[in-house]
């Protein structure tokens, strides 16, 4: 039987809401992503992927976000966020670093070290508080969920790592490290080293799925339009994703890419860390999932 990998990309609380709605909509159409053999998550995708790997149904994952849209920020919806509920996070220092690096063609290692420095020096909540916000995951995890992988980056040297349960790392710490947006959340200490968001290497890290027969890649960000540094960064994002997809295809994998459509992108707004948009985004994700189900049925279910 064909092995199936689900790759869930990063994209802040907005990305979590979209992926949650999308997964629920696909399931309603007969495409149950919880049946994957491997769940590979980066940042927002690490949160959604962990829930699927732990046995939560697509409906259980999606509904809290939809209820939050109708009645404000419900307790259930809030509990699904691996982030603080305070003021809207400021991403400008990180974005400036990345855009400046893209425009100048900066060495990737040098750029990653600069981002790591930002991660370590920023004033944020404590590591303990951040990891504790993953408690809703740990509560149902007696052991590392089968087939689950999440990504992170070493702040000191930019080394890319994957956590898959073989390292003895606690699930909450692993997911927190994957979600540690530099400048917004604290780097997470694991085995004496400190780690930041796996999205600093790639928004999807889809090449981690190499070796699977079928790979469904869910990418929250595929590059936006713009001018100057923003355009350069968008082009690098597109090139990176295409390179990862080509790596998978060349290794023999069948690949399908799902990205937000125009309605979803409009609901996203300009800041993927904007908690207030989660409800509307989940609704659009649900709609898109329902619309995509017929296209993906053969690829995923047969």
Instruction: Tell me the distance between the termini.
Output: 9 Å
Percent in helix: 40-55%
For the biggest sheet, the summary is: 8 strands, mixed
The run of helices and strands is EHEHHHHHHHEEHEEEHEHH
Number of helical runs?
A: 12
Give average pLDDT, whole number.
Answer: 87
| Shape call | globular
Task: Work out the number of β strands.
Answer: 8
Which band does the percent of strand residues land in? 5-15%
Low-confidence stretches: 69-86
Q: Output the structural class.
A: alpha/beta
Detailed description of the structure:
The chain is an alpha/beta fold and 302 residues long. The protein is 48% helix and 13% strand. It has 12 helices and 8 strands. Strands 1, 2, 3, 4, 5, 6, 7 and 8 form an 8-stranded mixed sheet that branches. α3 (58-71) runs antiparallel to α12 (278-301), α5 (92-104) runs antiparallel to α6 (108-121) and α11 runs antiparallel to α12. The protein is globular, with a radius of gyration of 18 Å. 51% of the residues are buried. Mean pLDDT is 87; it is low at 69-86.
């Amino acid at each position: 039987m064909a092995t199936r990998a689900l790759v869930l990309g990063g994209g802040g609380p907005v990305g979590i809401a979209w992926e949650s709605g999308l997964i629920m909509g696909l399931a309603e159409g007969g495409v149950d992503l919880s049946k994957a053999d491997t769940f590979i998550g980066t940042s927002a995708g690490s949160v959604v992927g962990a829930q699927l790997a732990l046995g939560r149904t697509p409906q259980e994952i999606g509904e809290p976000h939809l209820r939050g849209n109708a009645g404000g920020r419900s307790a259930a919806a809030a509990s699904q966020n691996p982030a603080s509920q305070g003021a809207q996070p400021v991403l400008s220092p990180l974005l400036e670093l990345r855009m400046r690096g893209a425009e100048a063609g900066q060495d990737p290692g040098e750029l990653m070290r600069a981002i790591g420095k930002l991660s370590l020096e920023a004033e944020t909540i404590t590591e303990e508080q951040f990891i504790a916000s993953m408690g809703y995951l740990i509560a149902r995890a007696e052991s590392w969920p089968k087939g689950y992988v999440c990504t992170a980056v070493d702040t000191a040297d930019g080394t890319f790592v994957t956590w898959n349960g073989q390292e003895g790392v606690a699930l909450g710490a692993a997911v927190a490290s994957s979600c540690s947006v530099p400048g917004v959340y604290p780097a997470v200490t694991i085995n004496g080293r400190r780690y930041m968001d796996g999205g600093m290497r790639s928004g999807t890290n889809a090449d981690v799925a190499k070796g699977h027969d079928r790979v469904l890649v869910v990418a929250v960000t595929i590059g936006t339009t713009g001018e100057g540094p923003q355009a350069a960064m968008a082009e690098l994002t597109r090139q990176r994703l295409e390179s990862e997809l080509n790596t998978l295809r060349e290794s023999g994998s069948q690949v399908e890419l799902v990205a937000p459509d125009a309605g979803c992108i409009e609901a996203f707004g300009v800041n993927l860390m904007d908690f207030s948009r989660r409800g509307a985004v989940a609704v659009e994700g649900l709609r898109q999932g329902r619309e995509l189900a017929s296209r993906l049925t053969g690829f995923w279910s047969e």
